[in-house]
Amino acid sequence: MDETISLDQVIESLKNDRQEMGELIEESITSLKTLTSYNSRAIVFNELIDVLLDSDMIYIAKSFGDEALACTSQIENRVEKAKTLSRLSNTFHRHGFHQLSQEIFESVLKEIEDIDDRHRLVNLLISLIEEQLDDDLIDRGRETLDRTLPIALNLAEDSDILVPLALLTDMKARIGDENAEAIAEKTLSLSKKIDRDDEDGWVDCSLIKAFIRLDRYETAEELLKQLENKGCSDLHLMEIGIVLSEKKLFEKALDLTSKMKDDHFRFPLMRVIACDLILEDLTEDAMKLAEDIEDDFEKDLVYKELVEKSLDEENFDDAYRYLQMIENSYIDALTQKQIGLKYHKKGRQKKAIDHLLEAGQIASEIDKDSIKLEIVEGLMELGMDDRATKIVETIETIEEKTISLVIIAAKKN
Known about the structure:
By secondary structure, the protein is mainly alpha-helical. 78% of the residues lie in helices and 0% in strands. Among the domains are: 1-114, no CATH class; 121-232, Serine Threonine Protein Phosphatase 5, Tetratricopeptide repeat (Alpha Horseshoe), CATH 1.25.40. Helix 5 (78-94) runs parallel beside helix 7 (118-134) and helix 7 (118-134) runs antiparallel to helix 8. The longest helix is centred in the middle third of the chain and has 22 residues, at 138-159. It is flat, with a radius of gyration of 24 Å. The two termini are 24 Å apart.
């Protein structure tokens, strides 16, 4: 990382120029240093960097980056260390600091280069790719995929371990890689030659998802029948159903829900399908499906999606109608926050304040620090410093308290 002034110097400078902000940053770091795990510290520093970069507080973010790197240097577990460094690299990459991000990612690669166990190495790389793709860092994910694929292919051909290759095959299809179909065919061919009694259905599941993404539905259906004959899990069906829903194959996705026995997987899949229906303006179908979800949390996530869509269309009457259907307090608070921020953008401050205060009241009643953090962020968007500070005072977990303090400091910038 480029040389930056130390965090202590940053804090002292802030306390001289902007005393309140400096004191908030100092309090957050004091709180953070009570965490005994260096990995936990580094993870929270990464969250703080994201907040600071969102507020263009670049020099403070970079000094936090130095602190995060110092924490990672103390992590003994190599896999944990690599994952945390990768997350830090992803954060800087998302905010456009590509050179700095690349330097950190090179340290990840250096950290794992001596891992001799190919299976362990490829599983670690797969977890890094998943985070890169989830962060929409497609180019970085593609680069790591291309680096990992030969290792997985050798593992399959030499040791009959096929799951990593199948997972990577689905990832290739997910990003629309031009070689995805050829790789899928290669993986399918190997799957027919290798004894796969111990892979728990994940090769077939991953191949099914890949072929659905590639619009090879007949192949996917054949593999699904094969998987069902072996006895597939509801988790497999849920993952396949999610991909079918993404491809707007709603009837096929719904067919899978009827084959599922465990509601812990069935209801989330129904919620995903309902939310995808909403995105396609099939609101009535989504509502009918939501009524069949016998889990308030999953059902309310559908109603929250309907509120958000109504807000995007500036249809506040419908937004209120769907809001009244929400029973889960956690989702109610998040939705109140969303409505408040929408009114804030429209310049209707009284309405915005009313909804944020309602969200804060709900958050205080359910006493969950993660939702309090969300409300602090919303209140600071409206410049309601005193209310936000009062909520922070009730937060008990070190991680959420630290992040909340930095959010307040950043918004005061």
